[in-house]
Amino acid sequence: MSSPNPPSGTAAPASPTLDTAATTTHGGQLSRSLGVGGNVLITLSGISPASSVFILGGAALAGYGTGVFWGFALAGVISILIAFCYAELASRHPIAGGDYSLVSRVLGPASGAAVFFIGMVSLPLIIAIFALGVADYLGFALAGLDPLATALIVIVLATVTACFNIRTNAWVTGVFLFIELAALALLAVLGLVHIERPITDLFDSQALDAATGGLAPLGIAGLVLAVTQGIFSYNGYGGAVYFAEETKNAKRAIARAVLWSAVITVIAELVPLTAVLLGADSLEELFGAGLPVESFLASRAGDTVTVVVLIAIALAIINAIIAIALQSGRLLFAAARDQAMPAALARPLGRVSARTSMPVAATIVMGVIALAACFIPFDVLLNATGSTLAFSYGFIALAAFVVRRSPAAHGTYRMPLWPAPPVLALVAIITIFVIGILDPAQWLSLTIAFGIVAAGYLYFVLYLRHRPGVLHLIDASDDPDDLDGTPVAAGEGRGA
């Protein structure tokens, strides 16, 4: 696949004043060795389209029926809008640390602290959630696996793998990603070669009526919830930003990595789900099945193929854990390098391994937190992560709305139709919050998310605000390798 062109033009690069110390930390430096393709491989692995289709997509089919078609299509549009926001922000500030780094530099350290707390809680908990589900899929080949023991082993192996150099991780995740995309391709083919109904049947959103066993119209609230499920299913394309300092020509390339990751994810999930809806023998039986996607696969391909595919899903989940472990390590590393924590913690966590050019200490610490999270009740894990995504996207959309108050450097990606993408994304996120507030089942998740954000702001008020000059928000966009890879003579740069 050829490298994409951003949807809008970018200015021709010039020779800016550069800071060779921008990505150097305690004598170490992240290795700028990924191309756009390598970044996309790791990012897509963290999204795990296959497990999203089988787990989240299956749950959506059971709950929202044919509303999944419109719900996931609209979610795809919203996701692309948010991807535009990520692309412009990351092009201006191609820095390891993901949402935290972007928000800190655009909205300020108070909001940055809130987003840092979101990441510090959600990333390890997501790893734990994924790991605890691995045994359910590996169990088709290895009966009797204990979910907790399996999760602990998987997290240890994933954390160790995440400490290898970034190119090795790109190859490892790329192999796993190929397997899960092949599983999705098989699912799409099975649905499209045996089409049972025209696509126009999907335009009228209907879901299973538990009382009658037949189909009934899906209300607007149900459709909005289907959109929410789709947004969550597509989530992760912003993960490309975590590897900005390891991506060549990052000022231009990181926008492409974000946009390609978002577009591929939407296609890779929406097409097979639509194929399942078109190819199922009976929509009532599909929506009433305990595991709708697996049920469709078994009816079309047989039990043996189904077992093979489900093992592939287990590998996809493990792959996602590796990718998220990579991201979480860079979050903690970036905050430590910014000195957003006491020096006794920042010094070791901000180091880069001289051998692998990886933030090993930060990655291991996040892995240990994920191990501890495995002992938290599963429903608590789900509630603690359920609404944090909307907050993260809200901060990113707001940052993308205000970012143009400051001039952009040459070569910076500019999203098309600004400010429409961040405004529309904010409207969608506010709608999701309103629906959540009206649904008592979402109150616990929203309360926990509000609490995490409040804790971040409180951390700023009680600690960071009283340490003027300590927070050191370096900008890796000043790294000479960001633009054309041509080093700058010593002494030409600006002090960090």
From TrEMBL:
What is the superkingdom listed in this entry's lineage?
A: Bacteria
> Which terms in the GO cellular component ontology are assigned?
plasma membrane
How this chain sits in the membrane, per its record, is: Multi-pass membrane protein
Map out region (Disordered) in residue numbers.
Answer: 1-25
Membrane-spanning residues: 40-62, 68-89, 110-134, 140-164, 171-195, 215-237, 258-280, 305-326, 357-378, 384-403, 415-437, 443-464
Q: Which UniProt keywords apply?
A: Cell membrane, Membrane, Transmembrane, Transmembrane helix
**Keyword field contains Endoplasmic reticulum:** no
The positions making up the signal sequence are none
Give the subcellular location. Answer: Cell membrane
Q: Which GO terms describe its molecular function?
A: transmembrane transporter activity
Name by which UniProt lists this protein: Amino acid/polyamine/organocation transporter, APC superfamily
What organism does the record attribute this protein to? Agromyces cerinus subsp. cerinus
